[in-house]
Each structure stands twice: as structure tokens, then as C-alpha cells.
Specification:
Radius of gyration: 20 Å
Helix content: 40-55%
Order of helices and strands: EHEEHEHHHEHEEHEEHEEHEHHH
Number of strands: 12
Oligomer: single chain
Largest sheet: 7 strands, parallel
Shape: globular
Strand order of the largest sheet: 3-2-1-4-5-6-10
């Protein structure tokens, strides 16, 4: 089997490629434009495998996407390529519309043309798996409610609105043209190779350097955390075994306030790399003005994927967070060049999940 992974040099995409090749023995064809958050070093563990190949292309180039599908004889598409940072979408929404909406449209049209060319057996086997986010559902009150696959869409930011738009396009291409699609919506991911502007790596590295840890508002916004390797396992299951036309929510059963996450990281860093004076890095936490339209809470009901596909998270948040801190300590050669570039001169931003 050969799977095309768009955005395979990104955080989740690279985890998917590593899982397909190293764990499942499935060929992964990585297509990535290599924007600021992409890093081919994240594919180093599988770069020499005959099951892995890379094409530097933009998903908005439908002709190029179709040519790659034909050349590589693709059996499935796992579409992860997206602009994904909420703060960036507030500052400049145009690129989010271009990549997340128009890019998905171009990829769908390429996939439809390719699928129509296949023989009957390969047409039946082909899948287009669109990977989305829980943010398309808006936000939840501070209670025990959860996002399900049938929760109405109510996106709050330009980012989540662009992802919601792409979800609707994928469903429309299934209903109108019969394209065999599956969809998934995930909670916040964390783990190795996470771009350092996101909450967990940002706090780890700032804490290590004894820099301020800026937290939006009071830090009481709640997110559900999912280790990226568990997500990669779920995505492979959905792409290969999910029911056509269905969507699956993937969550970690690990709701935490942003402040609790930051405090937990401080405690782990203190334990693994204690300060000389023995003080806690919690004293680095600094509350800053909240961002516009900040959703209160996200929480996923993933009972559907658990019941239908037998997937469950393999590690607790505490275990995964401890492993993640250790990974960043041990892999400065991956993150240091990114930090030194300072994200092309931009601010680090406040500590927020996405």
C-alpha cells in the first residue's frame, strides 16, 4: 500500500510518516511545501527507507498533485497540510484561506480525477482521509459536555473557520461525486518534533532558559491533550479501516487548563534540570492580555473510534509530558536552529495551545 501524506514535514504529518514506514511497513509519499513550520529533520529516522519518498510541492497546485498521484500510484491520501496557528490566523487570515480552503479544493479535484482513472478494484480501495481539528466545533462551557461527531460547527477564529470550510468541501465531494472520503477531528497534540511556537515546547524551552512564561488571561482555558504518536496510530486506522463518508473524533481523555499544563512543565523541568538555588520555575509564569475570541474549552468524545476501530490512547498525559520534556532536553540539534531564527523575527507569543 502507498499513502500520500500532505504536510508530512509538519508536526503531526511527520509522526504519521514515521508510523506508516517504521511501524506498519507502509510506503509514505510525503508532499510538503516546506513553509516555516515544516522540518525535514523530523523525517530523519525514516529518510533512508525505500518506503519513504518526498516531493516539495504546494497542495494548491492541483496539476502537480495529480501528477504525483499518477507517478506514485497512490492508494490513499492523508491530507494534513494546513496553516494551523490561531494567533497567526488573527494577524493574517489570507494565507489560511488560501492553503486550508483553496488548497483542499485543489487536492480534492486532483484526487477525484485520479480516482476516476483507476480500475474498479483500486477505486474501491482508494480513500481520501481529511484530518481536521476540534476547533471547528467552537467552544464548550466549563462543564462535562463533549464534542461528538454530530456537534454543530461554530468556528471562532479565522483558522478554525478555514478548517470548517475544508471539512464541508470534503463532505460535499463525497456526496456529490462519490469520492470515498473519511474525516477526523482531533484534540490538541503534543510530543516530539513540535514546532517551538506552540504551548508545550515553548514553555519547555523558555523554562530551560529561565525566560518568562507568558500565559493568556488567567490560564483557565481548557484543552484536551493527545500524544502525537497515539494520534498517528488513530489516523492510520481511520485511513485504512474507517467507514467511507464517516468522521471520527480523536481525543486524549486528558483535559487540563493551560495554567495547569504550564505548571506541570515547570515541575518536570525543575526535577530534571533543577536551578542552582532550588527555586521553582513557576515564578517565571506571567499572565498577559487575552487574545480576541479565545475559546474557553475543548473536549473530545472519542467513543466512536474506540468502539468501531479499537483505538485508545496508549499513555497518560503525565507519562507523555515527562517523555516530551526529556526529548527536548536530548534533541537541541533539532530545535535550536529554529529558536535561533526566532521564527523569521516574530514574537514568541503567549503560551497557548494552538
Amino acid at each position: 500500500m502507498k499513502i500520500l501524506v500532505t504536510g508530512g514535514a509538519g508536526f503531526i504529518g511527520s509522526a504519521v510518516c514515521r508510523h506508516l514506514v517504521a511501524d506498519l511497513g507502509v510506503a509514505a509519499v510525503n508532499v510538503d511545501k516546506l513553509t516555516y513550520a515544516a522540518n525535514l529533520q523530523s523525517l530523519k529516522p525514516i529518510a533512508g527507507s525505500p518506503l519513504y519518498s518526498f516531493h516539495q510541492n504546494d497542495i494548491c497546485d492541483g496539476e502537480a498533485m495529480l501528477a504525483i498521484m499518477r507517478k506514485e500510484r497512490i492508494d490513499a491520501v492523508m491530507h494534513l497540510a494546513a496553516e494551523s496557528h490561531v494567533d497567526r490566523s488573527i494577524d493574517g487570515p489570507a494565507v489560511f484561506i488560501e492553503t486550508n480552503v483553496m488548497g483542499t479544493y485543489a487536492l480534492l479535484e486532483a484526487a477525484r480525477a485520479y480516482w476516476n482513472e483507476l480500475d474498479a478494484e483500486r477505486r474501491d480501495r482508494f480513500r481520501f482521509h481529511h484530518i481536521s481539528t476540534d476547533e471547528v466545533f467552537g467552544d464548550l462551557p466549563f462543564d462535562d459536555s463533549l464534542f461528538t461527531e454530530t456537534t454543530p460547527y461554530a468556528p471562532s477564529s479565522p483558522y478554525s473557520a478555514s478548517k470548517a470550510s475544508s471539512d464541508h468541501l470534503v463532505r460535499a465531494w463525497h456526496h456529490t461525486y462519490g469520492l470515498p472520503v473519511v474525516l477526523s477531528n482531533c484534540s490538541n497534540n503534543y510530543g516530539p518534533y513540535h514546532f517551538p511556537e506552540k504551548l508545550i515546547p515553548l514553555v519547555i524551552l523558555n523554562a530551560l532558559d529561565n525566560q518568562k512564561l507568558p500565559v493568556y488571561g488567567k490560564g483557565d482555558n481548557v484543552r484536551d491533550w493527545l500524544h502525537v504518536t497515539d494520534h498517528a496510530r488513530a489516523l492510520a486506522m481511520i485511513a485504512t479501516r474507517g467507514q467511507v463518508g464517516q468522521s471520527y473524533n480523536v481525543g486524549g481523555h486528558s483535559e487540563r487548563t493551560n495554567l495547569a499544563v504550564v505548571e506541570a512543565i515547570c515541575d518536570i523541568v525543575d526535577r530534571q534540570r533543577p536551578r542552582g538555588d532550588g527555586t521553582s520555575r513557576r515564578d517565571l509564569i506571567t499572565f498577559v492580555t487575552d487574545r480576541p475570541g479565545h475559546d474557553r474549552r475543548y473536549a473530545i468524545d472519542c467513543s466512536k473510534i474506540e468502539a468501531e476501530l479499537g483505538w485508545k490512547p496508549s499513555r497518560s498525559f503525565e507519562e507523555g509530558l515527562d517523555e516530551t520534556v526529556s526529548w527536548y532536553f536530548d534533541n537541541a540539534d533539532w530545535w535550536q536552529p529554529i529558536r535561533e531564527k526566532r521564527y523569521a523575527g516574530e514574537r514568541l507569543g503567549a503560551a497557548e495551545a494552538k
